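Re: weekly structure request thread

Next one in the queue (206 aa):
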Amino acid sequence: MSHDHPKCTPSWIALLGLVLCIGSAHAAIYRLNPPHTFPQFEIRHLVFSLIHGQFNKTRGYLRLNRRTGQAAVVAKIWVRSLDTGYAPRDHDLMAKPFFYAKRYPYLFFRSTRVVFHGRRQATLTGILTMRGVSHRVVLQVTRIHCAISPLNQKRVCGFDAQGSLERSWFGVDGFLPMLPDRVRLILNADAVIVRHPAMAVRKELR
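Done, posted below.
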């Protein structure tokens, strides 16, 4: 694990976000790395199998200041990037009883609070918006690892998180109660530093 205060150079990569230069009052901004960021879910199919799904297109930004224990996350997920490993099922899940992708093409997440538990774990609370409905969700970040990537020599921070939600909170009521209401959430992601983030990104992470 590297130190949080490299000598005043805006070059740090973080899990949920950013690290400051010594004496700086501003946090660094990081971009989610799409090829390494896959929001996933699990749901029991009747009483037989466990269905896994993941979204293959996610965009977002992170802000982190471990010195002050502050962080923020925003993410946008393209619903039609869902992949459960079976194309006919993916097609069915785009329909109105489920994600209703024609009307609501994206999922949105915005953090409201991040509490760190040491340097490698955290509790991430935020608002998930699905089908136009917003609801509070809590994710337990179970692993944080930050280091210089040997591939591009930039700071990268990887993290794993998990949680759960009730799909009925968002009006996703297809086949209830034959299919359970509770859905397990799994997130594996990493983020790469943005040296000159746009002002719009900074405002979004305030």
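The chain has two helices and eleven strands. The two ends are 27 Å apart (CA to CA).
Next request, please.
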